[in-house]
Amino acid sequence: MDPDQNPAESISAAPLLVVMGVTGSGKTTVGAALGQRLRVPYADADDFHSEANVAKMSAGIPLDDGDRLPWLEAIGSWLAEHVVTGGVVSCSALKRAYRDVLRRSAPTVSFVHLDGAEEVVRRRVAGRPGHFMPASLVASQFETLEPLGPDEHGVVLDLGLPVDDLVEAYLASAPPLRTRSHPPTPTGPEPGSGNRTEQGE
């Protein structure tokens, strides 16, 4: 950081991401890979669930919004703690309202939605025995899913792609990292002094 740079000016320099999607979409694998590639901390939203939530899902009972709110708030707190350093968290974030909870804590967060066919996801979930999320809940997750709206900052990627390709696809779609959030000092002629050069981003 430049000696004369305000720490608040570097907030936009580090990526703050939520890798979202239904269970079995590859959130954990892709999220960890993005965290490693971007050299920022990574967290898995599964680790923020209460024991009661895990017990419900293990029994094949979908969580309700009352179950999810404390979980989402805990994830939002983690994101808020990593606004300056950057961070990646894997979280289903299926509904717009759930993403709004995260944005309230971390307004600069962006979403990476791993999207794909339900049958592909169902096969994946069936092939990972021992996970607390049974394949029987896949359908309910797709029913709950609300895709990113046009006003939500994020990108949609095909969950069927290899992990390395997904990481590269995100990097290709992401804006360049910036170290300052304020406009550069003008170097051209002063306004009204003749020819004027304007630069856009």
Automatic annotation (TrEMBL):
CDD domains noted in UniProt: GntK (cd02021)
Molecular function in Gene Ontology: ATP binding; gluconokinase activity
Catalytic reactions of this protein: D-gluconate + ATP = 6-phospho-D-gluconate + ADP + H(+)
EC class: transferase
Listed GO biological process terms: D-gluconate metabolic process
UniProt KW keywords: ATP-binding, Gluconate utilization, Kinase, Nucleotide-binding, Transferase
InterPro entries the UniProt entry points to: P-loop_NTPase, Shikimate/glucono_kinase, Therm_gnt_kin
Keyword hit for Transferase: yes
Position of the signal peptide: none
Family matches, as NCBIfam families: therm_gnt_kin
Protein name in UniProt: Gluconokinase
Organism of provenance: Streptosporangium album
